[in-house]
Specification:
39% of the residues lie in helices and 21% in strands. With 345 residues, it is α+β, with helices and mostly antiparallel strands.
Length: 345
């Protein structure tokens, strides 16, 4: 590579790092004068790289938006980071519906790596193991994702066409508050102005999204991620479980995260009386202690109940099952099994 060509590529790399670069800074970094810098800029413009001149005391050059991405100049650490990010994103389901886009992007970066670095990256990818299987999720359409993100940024209403889990299709208007990635899926959350309530939609079930005229005010309250998690915890399921647990919210969240359960403080009059939670009031119980963590109300909605008794056992905190009776029976059955097995020689 000739020295002028190498300097042109160095100029492109400097501009890609962001911001406006002054003429003096570019001339010093390239080791040339101002006239030569202008000639290098002309070379980039001839290659359809959108370089803009910025006038004024602190003016210089910067990259402007173009109809296509300019050539990227990545350092070794940057190339490795991008490749690993593509691999992790693909396994976690955080890709768009164009499934081959990540693979072709990774292949392009891989082809231009120096041989020594390509061999080291291959070694990383071949030796890399994951503790969980790759996610098998339906990815959202890239155009829909970009449209919704634009609506969030500019506070624009959006019309979406959505298919619910029962297969019913419908058109909705949404004031989107944010786009959230959770457990391998993408969600959009916001206010439905027609009913005045918060709604959350899976992006892979949105078949069309269109910006509408006008704007809306941002709703005060939890951030978009918390809205999505709260929606999971309060969604309609077969069983509605209400518990009282004595412990801290951090202890409870260790086993029952926000996407599974809601946790609220109990009024003093609602806390169980000493011995109330024990099957035998004559037996001492740690929850009888006057000084200790508060009682909290925990509400869970679930399709099945069999997973809850082991979770409560793992919490190892005093608790009372308020409802349903079926859960109370499952807890007693699990305790009996533990007792029988513990007594075996």
């Amino acid at each position: 590579m000739s020295r002028p060509t190498g300097r042109v590529l160095t100029l492109l790399e400097l501009l890609q790092s962001g911001g406006t670069r002054t003429m003096a800074e570019l001339a010093e970094r390239l080791g040339v004068d101002g006239r030569t810098v202008r000639r290098y800029v002309d070379h980039l413009i001839d290659l359809d790289v959108p370089v803009e001149a910025v006038r004024g005391r602190y003016g210089g050059y910067r990259l402007g938006p173009g109809h296509r991405l300019p050539p990227l100049m990545l350092g070794e650490d940057e190339a490795v980071a991008v490749l690993l990010g593509l691999v992790a994103g693909r396994r976690a389901g955080l890709t768009t519906a164009t499934a081959t886009a990540g693979e072709t992007a990774a292949a392009k970066i891989r082809r231009v790596l120096p041989r020594h670095l390509a061999a080291r990256v291959d070694a990383v990818l071949e030796s890399l193991a994951f503790t969980e299987p790759a996610g098998e999720f339906t990815a959202p359409d890239a155009g829909i994702l970009l449209t919704l993100a634009d609506a969030v940024r500019h506070r624009r209403p959006v019309a979406i066409r959505y298919t619910d889990r029962e297969g019913r299709r419908g058109d909705r208007t949404l004031h989107p508050q944010g786009v959230v990635a959770h457990a391998g899926r993408w969600y959009v959350t916001g206010r439905d102005p027609g009913i005045g309530e918060d709604r959350t939609f899976r992006l892979d079930r949105v078949t069309d999204a269109r910006l509408l005229p006008g704007s809306f005010e941002v709703i005060e309250g939890p951030d978009p991620a918390q809205r999505v998690l709260s929606g999971f915890a309060t969604a309609a399921y077969r069983h509605e479980v209400t518990l009282r647990i004595r412990g801290t919210a951090e202890q409870i969240r260790g086993r029952l995260p926000a996407s599974v359960a809601s946790v609220t403080a109990l009024a003093r009059t609602e806390a169980p009386r000493p011995g109330q939670e024990s099957t035998d009031a004559s037996e001492p119980d740690e929850s009888d202690e006057p000084d200790g963590p508060p009682w909290l109300r925990v509400e869970v909605r679930a399709e099945r109940l069999d997973w809850l008794p082991p979770v409560l056992a793992a919490l190892d905190l005093p608790f009372v099952v308020e409802r349903p009776d079926e859960l109370r029976e499952l807890v007693v059955a699990l305790a009996d099994r533990f007792a029988r097995r513990a007594r075996r020689a």
